[in-house]
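Page 42, continued from yesterday. The earlier attempt failed because a stray header line got pasted into the input along with the sequence. Redoing it now with the clean sequence only.
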Amino acid sequence: MKDGEIVEELEAARLDEARHPYTRALIACVPHMTTDRSRPLPVIGDLAEPDRQDVAEEARA
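This time it went through. Structure tokens are written below.
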């Protein structure tokens, strides 16, 4: 949900198939064991913009 609206419905096992920019931004913000703790986590406002998908991809790396 974004702003009270359902933007995408997926089973948890299929989250890697997310297509909506906001869903992808939420997933990109989840830290992993390999996340560089010296860098701040991505901000959803930056990642949810369609022209900022490069940031979302970098955040997953």
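Notes: The chain has a mean pLDDT of 78.
Reminder to self: strip header lines before submitting.
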